[in-house]
Amino acid sequence: MDIATIVGLIMGVALIMLAMLMQTAFDTAQLGPFWEPSSMMIVMGGTLAATAIGFRLKEILRVFTLIKFVVTKPKYIMSDLVNELITSAEANKKGPAELENHITNVKTPFIQDGLTFIVNGIKFDDLKAILKQRENFRYKRESHESDLMKTLGTFSPAFGMVGTLIGLVFMLFNMGGGDPSAMGPAMAVALLTTFYGVGIANLIFIPFSEKL
After folding, report:
1. What is the pLDDT of residue 132?
2. Are 209 and 149 in contact (CB under 8 A)?
């Protein structure tokens, strides 16, 4: 598990909550108004709806399955890859037969495929072109997935502003002859949607996209 992600999330939420508690002299009862289901519905519902319009469903579903990679250790560590290449090079020096036997001990599929090509006698330039093309495809796919997560981080503050406008409309309506007691809750919705949108974007979606 990637401890940095877990620690970062816990620390971010904890510091925000601590700052809020300090403002209320540690009276937890005053934090109740910060939970507003309608504001959360506006932000999350609007963000998911806009993303569904802009991307295909299978792409969206795949991104949410990739969140597990944010909280787990990287599958490949550079030092391990270097060691695999060094041992493979040493096996290759002993001859094609030794390299062929060594392939079964290689754990990284990319390196394993490259060694298989070498054993089969492929030309160096062809091998280089094939492996570079594979890496380009992988890079483009993972960049697209990261961009989708970053798009979620762009949409959520925008729909926070939409919620703010909705709250302001209700507040102004009540100022013009409606129920004055409804002005406070309407203003709360206006501010909380912005709070939710900015918080979710900068604490979850954008950092997750960077790690992906």
Report:
1. 95
2. yes
Q: Which residue in the block uniquely carries the two structure tokens 């969140």?
A: 67
Q: How many Cα atoms are found within 13 Å in the side-chain-facing hemisphere of 209?
A: 18
pTM of the model: 0.73
Q: How confident is the model at residue 176 (pLDDT cuts 50, 70, 90)?
A: low
Measure the CA–CA gap between 31 and 20, rounded to whole angstroms. Answer: 8
Q: What separation in angstroms does the CA of 39 have from each of 51, 149, 194?
A: 18, 21, 9
CA distance 201 to 191: 16
Q: Would you list the DSSP string of 55-93?
A: S-HHHHHHHHHTHHHHSS--S--HHHHHHHHHHHHHHHH
Long-range contacts of 13-18 (CB under 8 A, 24+ apart): 13/203, 16/199
The CA distance from 188 to 120, in Å, is: 69
**Residue entry with tokens 């597990």:** 68
pLDDT tens digit string along 105-147? 998 999 999 999 999 999 999 999 999 999 999 899 888 888 8
Q: Residue 99: which of 80, 85, 82 has the closest Cα?
A: 85
Element (H, E) at 170: helix 124-175
